[in-house]
Amino acid sequence: MVFRNLTVSYELIKNPIPLLNHRTRWISSLKVVWKKDTRLDEAIEQDKRYNLCARVTREVLNEPGQVIPLRYLEKRRERLRLGFKAMSFVEMNPSLFEIYYDRIKPKSEPVRFVRPTPRLRAFLDEEERIYRENEGVIVAKLCKLLMMAKDKVISADKLVHVKRDFGFPNDFLVRLVKKYPNYFRLTGLVGEEGNNKSFLELVDWNPDFAKSAIELRAEEKTVRTGVRVRPNFDVKLPSGFFLRKEMREWTRDWLERDYISPYEDASRFDQASKEMEKRTVGVFHELLSLSLLKRVPVPILGKFCDEFRFSNAFASVFTRHSGIFYLSLKGGIKTAVLREAYREEVLIDRDPLLAVKEKFSRLLEEGWQERKDRLKLQREQVEKDREVLLAGEKQQEPEERLCD
Question: I need a surface site. Which of 163, 207, 275, 334 has the fewest CB within 10 A?
Fold first, then answer.
């Protein structure tokens, strides 16, 4: 049974607001009690140190010449959310940066500068190779985002803001728009107060990209089993959760309804209809499937309410459909997680662009191990020196007594 082990408790709101009851009774009349998933929270926690190192690395690499005076980096600690001194960070990550002396101005005194190590520069070359080899994946992702969007257009600024969530390289717009004019076009618009805004527009619809992860999975199962598999969501929750009868019936009814592709035109659906709810869940599922880690902070998703026709209360979808998503509160940030992509805290749905993150993680771990080994040798040397000193003192004691 699909519902026997589902693990979120639900309650019906007995007296919804009368004015809203008619339009929203099917969707928002169900109140969902959030329940913590420690395994998925752990998956987010594991990336905390990685994210800090990546943040500081980007800060240095974005500087002219990819170098920065140490004291300038120190002044940016609060913005970088760096909880200790910049020099300590450099010392803790010997594979990333090294210290050298230079002058800020020609006649000024030399001061400490931070620059990338040769190993970090080698990683950057490797990163570029991975992006080149997976350019087709990046193009497909970008096309899919535009194909789901209203009018097939998304603000360029918004896309740049989410580039790391989807694994795009820093220069993806410059790189792809010129190379793939059959897919992409940058357009400009004069906004309020004369501000120019750029938008990325889809030029041509590729039907090969118009299949969601759920539809592709159903096709694969059909080929493998020889039996036609109907596209639908994979509902799974940790054991121990309980569904009340009302929610069990609601979920069964909802799952039995036809799957609506996120690439289907949504303009014909009423915003509060069952069909729009099904389509919205499909869009979120597809967005998370396209993301690098199969999870995206809710504030990031909220930037696309207009483009993907999300309601202002869109975040409730993640708790209302807790068998599909998990809403993590780890770190004080709401993060939407795609449950099926994880086995406990381990990401099993691997994006080819994850190779960049994995290589950077290995670079960090090499540096951490080197520092650990160096500190161990230093402690051992201190202990040896102490033992030699004590041995020398013991040898001198009899001589001192003879002199007496």
Answer: 207
